[in-house]
Queue: 2 jobs
Job 1
Amino acid sequence: MTAVTDATAAAESEAFPPDVVFRVKDLDCYYGSHRAVRYVTMDVREREITAMIGPSGCGKTTVLRCFNRMNDLIEGARATGTLLFRGVNLYDSRVDPVEVRRRVGMVFQKPNPFPKSIFDNVAYGPRIAGAVPKRELPDIVEASLRRAALFDEVKDRLKDSAIGLSGGQQQRLCIARAIATSPDVLLMDEPCSALDPISTAHIEELMHTLKEEYTIVIVTHNMQQAARISDRTAFYTAEVDSETNVRYGLLVEFDTTEKIFSNPSDERTENYVTGRFG
Amino acid sequence: MRLGRVFDDRTRKAVTSTVYKRTRDVKGAIFRTLLQVALLVALLVLAVLLVDTVLDGWSVLDGRLGDFLAGGLRSQSGDPELGVFQGIRGSLWIAVFVIVLAFPLGIGAAIYLEEYAPRSRLTSFIELNIRNLAGVPSVVYGLLGLAIFVRGLEDITGGKSVTAAGITLAVLVLPIVIITSSEAIRAVPGALREAGYGAGATKWEVIRTQILPYAAPGILTGTLLSLSRAIGEAAPLILVGAVTGFLGGQSGLLDVTQLQERFTAMPIVITRWVQQSGRDGGFATAAAAAIVVMLVVVLLLNSAAIFLRNHFEKKR
Ligand SMILES: Nc1ncnc2c1ncn2[C@@H]1O[C@H](COP(=O)(O)OP(=O)(O)OP(=O)(O)O)[C@@H](O)[C@H]1O
Ligand SMILES: [Mg+2]
């Protein structure tokens, strides 16, 4: 992220609306020399659920992983343009990605529990942050598991390995792990894709509750889910660059969910949300 | 109704005739037999060697095992004080040097190479050279030990001492420790790293709480195999001056003053006795008994390794 100089960042933050958590402007994401995602401009607002929808490979995960600098871990991945987190340029050299990730939690597309006990999985974040006394850990673990709609299923085997859980249970465990540290923002990459309708309903309920305190960005392939739970929706799609013949993702439209689903401005959005895509 | 039944029967027959068919995987069956033969040959050779050695050494193992374990290098096979104590002592000290020097250095280097080093030409050049070093004949390490640890650092090592030998063998197995540890660290799933970083862990926290516990069984297996290798090496020890003849002074197993004194080790004792057996047949029996003793020591070490590995595997 080179485009943002301190001067512009300072100027931005002066006029920075307090309810904007992320401000994204002309963000491009690269994998090596491949400019995989282009022209992303959107604001993520506080205590709202922002949904990102679009066909497979259009760059939803890539953009989401910029929000907590997870893409730093991928060799050759970088981004240009503006990405402000509460007015601070997220890719400023003074920014510590570890601190960012403590404030911006993430649930990954594939469940990735640690090969440790269920308890240790949820307690991991609070433990390394070192912010809570040891005796409070059981309460935090229980509360997080309850919010992720998992506690009743695992309360008798908190000491068992998390690897023994089913795929859907593992995903809910990952949600519990992400909220155990009470982050400001929660990024969720298709958190419900492996879940049954009941668990999905639980998670959606959870998001509704969390919304009172947190800001949530969710990637989903489930259009009804986006329509049900989100306040704003970003529609991405993939196109082929006419000059170089490479496929890239781009943000087509970003607006209130109501507008996106009832009266989108762009024809591509309309085709997608009405199921006439491709 | 009637038509339906006929149709059902025919369908069922058609289905059974395909799914009941034994797939004739002839190549697979041949390959499997070959593999079993290979395993059988390896085990047979091992068993024959073992039985033969035990039988050869039986009169010593059965008759005077206690004295044999406590005795030292002597010039006559009939000497009642002939035994392997000095050899065991030397080998155990070498093991201590390998554990204390090669393990932390090797594992540390592997962590650095896999987790911290930038993916540059220099790094891959270094990795390539470590691989080459692992293939260098052990005599070359003996020469290196003689030049550096025996002659160059004589003030510290005391010259031809167990210290010089221990350091030489630690250097010998260092590349193997690095390679096997790197391999184990590389096998840690990327999703695990991401999960750790995603939960707000620093690099070191991810390494300590996720990568090392996950890689521990693999690292352990590799490092302990390299320990067995160090204990079995004879060639470099001859170059750094292991004693083959009479070795006086019976200091205890853990007596540190011996660290700068002349030494011997199990492979040397065995080699020497086998050489002497032409002149004095009793040494053949002693050599066989010494081999059995050494095998038991190595087996004990490996069992400890397996025990530790299972322990770590359960924990991860
Ligand atoms: N680690 C990577 N290295 C190189 N290219 C990548 C990497 N990850 C993603 N890409 C590329 O970036 C583009 C966007 O991928 P991304 O994973 O963001 O899509 P997505 O919208 O999340 O798709 P899905 O809905 O299938 O999860 C794709 O063309 C993909 O090939
Ligand atoms: Mg994705």
Job 2
Amino acid sequence: MKIIVLLKRVPDTEAKILINQEGTGIREDGVKFVINPHDEYGIEEGLKLREKLADGSKVTVVCAGPEEATEAIRTALAMGADDAVHVCDPKLADPNPFTVSEVLAKAIQAEGFDVIFCGKQAIDDDLAQVQSILAEKLDIPQVNNATAFEMAADCRSAKLSRRIEGGDEKIETSMPAIISCDKGLNEPRYASLPGIMKAKKKEIRKKSLADLGIAEVPGTGRSRVLKWLPLPKGGECRIVAAEETVDAVRELARLLREEAKVI
Amino acid sequence: MAYQPLDFYNIEELLNEEEILIRDTTRKFVDKEVMPIIAEEWEAATFPKSLIQKMAELGILGPFVPAKYGGSEASYTTYGLICQELERGDSGVRSFASVQGSLVMYPIWKFGSEEQKMEYLPKLASGKLIGCFGLTEPDAGSDPRSMITRAHKDGNHWILNGAKMWITNGSMADIAVVWAKDDEGRIRGFVVHKEDKGFSAPEQKHKVSLRASVTSELVFEDVRIPADRELPNTSDLKSPLMCLTSARYGIAWGAVGVLQAVLDEAIRYSQERIMFGKPIASFQLTQQKLAELATDLSNSQLAALRVGRLADEGKMKHYHVSMIKRHNVNAALLGARKVRGMLGANGITLEYQAIRHMCNMESVQTYEGTFEIHTLILGEHLTGISAFSNT
Ligand SMILES: Cc1cc2nc3c(=O)[nH]c(=O)nc-3n(C[C@H](O)[C@H](O)[C@H](O)COP(=O)(O)OP(=O)(O)OC[C@H]3O[C@@H](n4cnc5c(N)ncnc54)[C@H](O)[C@@H]3O)c2cc1C
Ligand SMILES: Cc1cc2nc3c(=O)[nH]c(=O)nc-3n(C[C@H](O)[C@H](O)[C@H](O)COP(=O)(O)OP(=O)(O)OC[C@H]3O[C@@H](n4cnc5c(N)ncnc54)[C@H](O)[C@@H]3O)c2cc1C
């Protein structure tokens, strides 16, 4: 079985994000980048499935992203994925979900696939669109936000759960399908030291858009990020002080009524 | 807010991908598995044994040992980074890994027979066996040559008599690498099994330092072990000292982890703690403390990395290690005390890390060569005159 897991490189959840001067993106200096945390659930599910099948099935990581994404890809290989496809092209700077989906679809078709796992959304832009557009392009079913996954013995269908308000939704889907993964699905393993040493020898196949037979960057013009802006600063804070607390309260009440006009 | 250690000199840029990955995976492990439980274990004076199997699965026990013996053939720099991250969690956790790796797996790997290596190393790497290292005695600490534990050859057996003290992992160890003098006064290394008759390992209690670590006496009363339990390739005191050089190297990195942890805590706390109407971070005295901590951290880190690179090029000398063990551990001890103070009354509780690290560093300052002994090793290197040798 060919198990595809999708991976996006995103800033660490804890990183302090600053917008660059031109307003075209974030300042990357000093920012730690990691595997999108939701994608880790996808990787883990792919690895668990491979271990359960134990029939020579392979887990292939597919990532569209900049040169620097190799570190995140290497981490996935260290967790245990077999190999990786890294679509990396200067034309892919600042892509939108449509572009990424088109590129991933081409890369995945070239690889062949029986099931695709990915995270329910990327924690940087929170768009959660790629899995759905990709499902359309590959013409396969999608199940989003899976919290349980069980492949049927014949590998032609799978049973899943999704957490919804107040309960669980049980779903059955035919295979191949794309499954976006949510917290609770599994506990992603650590990249072990032996895993990291082995990962050094695993293959990362670099692909340009030309390699995938894509001449024009698809999806440009559909939507475009105009500008990145920092959150507006909170208003000025005034401290009302007085010798006696009652006087401060009186002054505060006056300000609220006369200046702020809220009471 | 998660842990974000200061990287003032952009040392990240000096590390390769493998080093970064293993550091990050160990950091994540410490975040998830060590931080939530460590204060409680420390208070209860217990070692969190549940971590052993997890550390083994991560492959960080004796990572420098060849793959055929269950190791990962990792570089010394990688080993250092692992120690840095573990000690940021707690010195007790790092001590466990240091003993298992540098003081048990290392001597078996360097001085053991092929059979001994095959028998012990894979089980030690996978955490199936726990080891300890017995050199220090009640009356032989800084001067291990004065040890009185004896090994007498009796046909195909050795008979051990004596006692060791302050032995990390002792009571929970399955095997002990023990150093004893033969009839001619030459120091030899032996592998003692916990089941061996006449051997016992009572735990030492009432420690106010390194509480999340087991420390024990080892007692040998006519312990008779087969001759093939002797490590055949030792050369007197030099052999245990080689083990210590490897462990001390890791300890110097561990101290970097402590400095990172307490500086991180100090920066956060001082920005949030309001006194006299302002964050205490806005006072000059506080800023001076932070500046000193950041300087000590950055200098310790650079020095450890340089010695790591020397080790990987096969050029590391014992005096290099003495300098970083002495400097970094002392800086971490003083740094943790400083941060303890910066936290005011909160700093005396285990809600915060500083006092735990501060107490731990008192042990680390003493074991693996006291601060003074490393001073004298450097003095000997600089002058050619030993101030401590009794010959
Ligand atoms: C928590 C803990 C765990 C330990 N784990 C282990 C272990 O796993 N295995 C093991 O073998 N040992 C272990 N040790 C023992 C440790 O290595 C010794 O405590 C250390 O070597 C110091 O020996 P000592 O305690 O006998 O002090 P002493 O040697 O008695 O020293 C007392 C003081 O005198 C100073 N001093 C000694 N000689 C000189 C000199 N010539 N000039 C100036 N000052 C001098 C020392 O610096 C020190 O300040 C551990 C110790 C602790 C605290
Ligand atoms: C065991 C214990 C028992 C105690 N018992 C009592 C008691 O019986 N009764 C009682 O009333 N209190 C008691 N205290 C409280 C004690 O007096 C306070 O902890 C102490 O005054 C410090 O206040 P703080 O802990 O809020 O620290 P903070 O005032 O928050 O100080 C934090 C750090 O900032 C530094 N700092 C603060 N202001 C400045 C500045 N302007 N410039 C430079 N540095 C600054 C401090 O030196 C400290 O390092 C006790 C404390 C302890 C630990």
